[in-house]
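User: I've been trying to design a sequence by hand for this structure and keep getting stuck. Would you show me what you'd pick, starting by listing the structure so we're on the same page?

Assistant: Good idea, let's start from the same input. This is the structure you sent:
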């Protein structure tokens, strides 16, 4: 698999070659699944392949996703000697009962031990926290946030619990063993999260993401700002500004295609409506908002008129605001951002 990944890296090296805006690779992200199973030698090899085939900016952000059960004391020390300069750790909760409910492989002690060690060697760490968990009181949620703050973590990604079909959690809810997550609880936890982190010097730069100054995720920010990216490996997604692509998910089919010098990728050309809708969705989720000037210049007056018309009710209800020609959710509208965005989507234009 590592050799196949390196081959795909090389095969796709010319994709941004003629793009005048491309100044070099800004972020390298090992994510999806458990990339922490890679050895240091494999990580170093793949990073060197990127450098060999692409122009790379000075000091790129290089992130590894991992779970606490993957990050032993020895592993963290190993990673600190690699080019990885940012860790994204799937903590989810510091409470034993929450971790068991979510069927996580790690326990509370491992979560804390992992952060205790990681913060000795890494300055740039992000962790994930889940809110809206059945049985989680406001006090428990506040303590979860405080525990993360006590470790000095500079970036937190936080999401409401969602129940996926055919999971152990879904079964427990269906059989009445635990309560279903409540939107009201999740909304309240979200407000606590925003208020607490902002008081502690975090910037709420994207709906689910909070970072201290200079600690925003460059990788995720690139996606929200509509920058181009290449995804390598099974299931990886790519975007070049006009079309979106996704690699086949099946590992053996992916390997076979690469061995046969084929790229196992499907693509779709994005229509003007697709691109408008994506900009609305990502723009409203971030501190950068939706530029009305950009809507006019990139998509035309028809789209701008439509957006002004559709957003009026949310402006009237103090869920959206316009400042310096930028459309953004108000504090009251933040938790409802995704629903608001869907009402602003353009569904009826022919491209």
């Amino acid at each position: 698999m590592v050799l196949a990944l390196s081959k795909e890296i090389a095969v796709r090296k010319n994709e941004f070659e003629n793009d005048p805006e491309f100044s070099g690779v800004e972020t390298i992200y090992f994510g999806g699944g458990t990339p922490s199973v890679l050895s240091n030698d494999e990580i170093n090899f793949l990073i060197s392949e990127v450098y060999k085939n692409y122009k790379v900016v000075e000091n790129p952000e290089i992130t590894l996703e991992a779970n606490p059960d993957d990050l032993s004391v020895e592993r963290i020390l190993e990673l600190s000697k690699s080019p990885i300069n940012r860790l994204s750790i799937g903590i989810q909760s510091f409470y034993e009962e929450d971790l068991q409910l979510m069927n996580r492989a790690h326990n509370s002690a491992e979560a804390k031990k992992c952060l205790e060690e990681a913060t000795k060697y890494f300055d740039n760490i992000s962790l994930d926290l889940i809110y809206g968990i059945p049985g989680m009181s406001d006090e428990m949620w506040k303590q979860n946030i405080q525990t993360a703050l006590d470790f000095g973590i500079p970036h937190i990604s936080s999401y409401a619990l969602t129940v996926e079909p055919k999971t152990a959690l879904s079964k427990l809810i269906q059989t009445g063993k635990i309560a279903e997550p409540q939107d009201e609880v999740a909304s309240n936890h979200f407000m606590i999260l925003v208020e607490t982190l902002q008081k502690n010097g975090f910037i709420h730069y994207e709906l689910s993401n909070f970072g201290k100054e200079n600690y925003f995720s460059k990788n995720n920010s690139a996606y929200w700002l509509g920058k181009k990216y290449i995804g390598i490996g099974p299931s990886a997604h790519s975007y070049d500004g006009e079309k979106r692509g996704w690699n086949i998910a099946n590992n053996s089919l992916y390997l076979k295609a690469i061995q046969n010098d084929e790229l196992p990728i499907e693509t779709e050309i994005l229509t003007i409506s697709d691109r408008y809708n994506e900009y609305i969705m990502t723009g409203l989720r971030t501190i950068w908002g939706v530029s009305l000037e950009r809507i006019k210049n990139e998509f035309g007056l028809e789209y701008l008129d439509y957006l002004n018309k559709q957003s009026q009710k949310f402006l009237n209800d103090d869920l959206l605001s316009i400042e310096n020609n930028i459309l953004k959710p108000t504090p009251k509208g933040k938790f409802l951002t995704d629903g608001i965005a869907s009402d602003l989507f353009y569904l009826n234009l022919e491209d």
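That's my pick for every position. To get oriented when you compare it with your attempt: The two ends are 40 Å apart (CA to CA). The first strand starts at residue 25 and ends at 30.
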